[in-house]
Structure formats: structure tokens, C-alpha cells
Amino acid sequence: MKTGLVLEGGAMRGMFTAGIMDVLMEEGIAFDGAIGVSAGAAFGVNYKSGQIGRAVRYNTRFCGDSRYCGWRCFLRTGNIYSTEFAYGEVPLIHDVFDFDAYRQNPMEFYLVCTDVETGLPVYHRWDSFDDHGFDWIRASASMPLVSQMVEINGQKLLDGGISDSIPLRYFEELGYNRNIVILTQPPAYEKKENALLFLIRLVYRKYPQLIQAMQKRHAVYNDTLRFIEEKEKRGEILVLRPQAPLPVSRVEKNPDRLRQTYEIGRNCAVSRMSSIRKFLA
């Protein structure tokens, strides 16, 4: 049996995921592998490095800093989250990422990006900083319209959520057959068609396959939710999710709301701990 952790994205809704992961780490729960999308990738790497509290710490510290994120950052750099500060200074200087612990932990960590030219998901196992620094993480979390494309090995990449928001099927194909899935939307949530498709068609007119992927994203996402629901009913996976919409925006500038969302995640994990242990036993 291979145990896995599947992490949905959702920008700052990822503070809910961070709260759950910190409780799991505090309880000494280990997984054979994890896979994250967008914020699920950016925050999920802290599980492999074993850094409890890091995600909520640096986000509450810097969320109001225009060097880190926001519209001033976007107008200045073309990215809603700064490449230089958020993926450079923060993990290398201000709240140092533990690369040694990451490398030494045998847990595999995968992330998902979207190939701009094909519209298809790109699944990548990220083993160390030697693998293009944080560029793979940044690519997975590069939200369309508010982020520049990230080019790695000739591939132009954007947010993995465009093509595979909840990569449970892929993880099962890798042999992970006992998975905990962390979602960032409440029960009965259904994704609607993107209201900015007209702008997407204009901005990405040179990339018709990407446009097609974004046009059908809501349908693919909702189909994945139905797949997850059926597996959950059969007891084949365990799903952790908020019971109501989370009190944060995608680019949240209020540290109190980030902390509140984080605590909702922690409470969710604590309340489900006996079920988690039983499922993984």
C-alpha cells in the first residue's frame, strides 16, 4: 500500500490546507508521496521539508507587502506574486526553506503545471532546488491573466489548475492507492464557466489549446468532483474539506483572515484525526 496526499490549489484558500498539513506533521503522520497544484504545490513542499507553521508564518508576515503580492506588484512586474521576492528573497532569506530536510525525506513530491501550447497537464517530480530552483513551483502557481508564463526546458507553463485541479487519477496511476485528498471548496460546490473567457481569448489568442482547456475547465473540474465523491462513498479515499466557503480572497491582504482560514484547517484536521489514523492504518 502506498499512501498519498493530494492537494488542491485555490491561491490563499491554501491556508486551509496549510492548517491541515501542520496538524498532520505535528501528529507524526508520514506519506509515501504527495502531489500539489498551484498553492497546493507552493505550500505542500513544506510537508516534505517538515517545516510546521512556515506557510502561515510568511504569508501573514508579507501579505500586505507590495514587494510580495498585489496589484502594485502586478503592474510593476507582470506577476501578482513577485518572482524575485516571493520565490527568491522569502525562501532564501526571510523564512528559509530547509533544502537539506527536503532532500533527505524519502517522501516523493509531485506538482502539476499546464503546458500553454498543448493545454495539457505536465506532472513533475520535484526533488531538489537543483531542479530549476523554485521555477517549477512558480509555474504550478502562475494564475492566468495575472502571471507571466514560466519557461522550463522549452515548455511554456502556467497554473496546473487549468488542466488538472485535483490530480487524484494521476496519483492512482503512479500506484498511490491510499490517498487523503484536501479540497479547498465546501461540499456541493460546483465550478461555473469562467466569466473572463472573453479576455482569456484575447490575451492567449496565440495559444488555442490553452483557450480550449480553460473553456472546459469547469466541466473537467466538476467531473473530477463526481469521481472523488464516488470513491469517498466507497471508502477508497478520505476527503478533508471546509464545511463553508473560506473567508479569504485569492490574493488576501488581511493577515487576520489568513490566520482564520489556517485555523479552520487545523480544526478540521483535529476533528478528523481518528478517521485519518484509521484510514491510513
Describe the overall structure.
With 281 residues, the protein is of the alpha/beta class. It has helices spanning 14-26, 39-49, 54-62, 71-77, 83-94, 99-104, 135-140, 168-173, 197-203, 208-215, 217-233, 255-271, 273-280, and strands at 3-7, 33-37, 108-115, 121-125, 150-152, 155-159, 178-182, 237-240. Strands 1, 2, 3, 4, 5, 6, 7 and 8 form an 8-stranded mixed beta sheet that branches. Strand 3 and strand 4 form a beta hairpin. The chain is globular and about 50 Å long. The model has no long low-confidence stretch (mean pLDDT 97).
Strand content: 5-15%
Question: Percentage of helical residues?
Answer: 40-55%
Q: What are the secondary-structure elements, in order, as H or E?
A: EHEHHHHHEEHEEHEHHHEHH
Going by helix content, strand content and strand pairing, the class is alpha/beta
Q: Averaging pLDDT over every residue, what do you get?
A: 97
Q: Cα distance, first to last residue?
A: 10 Å
Can you count the beta strands? 8
The coarse silhouette is: globular
Low-confidence stretches: none
Q: Mind telling me the C-alpha Rg?
A: 18 Å
Per DSSP, the total helix count is 13
Task: Provide the fold topology.
Layout: E1 3-7, H1 14-26, E2 33-37, H2 39-49, H3 54-62, H4 71-77, H5 83-94, H6 99-104, E3 108-115, E4 121-125, H7 135-140, E5 150-152, E6 155-159, H8 168-173, E7 178-182, H9 197-203, H10 208-215, H11 217-233, E8 237-240, H12 255-271, H13 273-280
Parallel strand pairs: 1-2, 1-7, 2-3, 7-8
Antiparallel strand pairs: 3-4, 3-6, 5-6
